[in-house]
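User: Could you check the structure of this?
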Amino acid sequence: MSDRPILLAAGGTGGHLFPASSLAQELQRRGYAVELATDMRAEKYGGDFPARAIHRIPSATLTSPSPIAVAATFSRLGIGYAGALRMLLRLRPQAVIGFGGYPTLPPIIAARTLRIPTAIHEQNAVMGRANRLLARFVDQIALSFMPTKLLAPEAQARARLTGIPVRDAVLKFRDVPYAAPDPTSRLLLLVFGGSQGARFFSEALPPALERLPDEMRERLTIVQQAREEDLAALREAYARGKIAAHLAPFFRDLPERIATAQLVIARAGASTVAELTAIGRPCLLVPLPHALDNDQLENATRLQEVGGGWCVRQSELSTERLAELLQGLLSSPERLADAAKKAHGMATVDAVKRLADLVDELVKSKE
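Assistant: Sure, the predicted structure tokens are below.
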């Protein structure tokens, strides 16, 4: 193993860190040392990240077009760039691979300054803002969907389809068969929404589930991710509806819970879609309505087009419609089994190998 690592750079959310974690595992199997550059948000998702070291780089996200906000953001990114330069001069990485989010800007641009090979990976069906900025600088661009919206024409020649790499913890459930519900079995419904999406599900699901027929409600067990501040009210709502529920703010064993579910309700982040298709489970996807560039809507639409799930806009999901959808799906094992099969077939199971091959090529090109 070379002492010079591959540096992965990722924003500090699960959507960026999970595919980076998958690549880290594969690179280590190939004999590379791996280190991670991220931001402070990674404490929740990256505590067990498979890296030799984790570096926190000062960063900021552009959230307002006001001159003051723009100036503050670029000032913070400038501080991050200076810190990234010092880090790269010390580490001398063989390559720097970005996974999106503004924290990737300082390490990638610093690597470009030092002529270190670079690549970015785009998880969504729409090119993210940070990756759009970086696409003009990097040597290679890895895509999860073809075509990917908002990828500049001049960057197409450096782009290739790899798919979304998923963690070993997900792939271990790849061959677990889907168990469609029968008329007497428990109905296991899994619900998760990420930090930005969980509140809507906490408010929308209890009244919708109360509208289900008594016989269906008695068979139902719901496993749901909810914000800490919503747990007490949600627990009380399910108790009133006599619905068995297991609630938590975060599930570290989420892949196993996906594998045991008969239906999943979730947002449509790229990593969510990748894990649902890798395991092969039917899903009702409700894209985050305020997601930048409607990337979640694009992700969910691609899955719906192949028949692997159902996409419904949040603005169209009244209590009555949600109840109707759930009753129809949970009483149709054939539809659920067919969606599970089609979702399973959509997965790019060798995505992590393709992405690691790209890293190998970058390293060899420098040599």
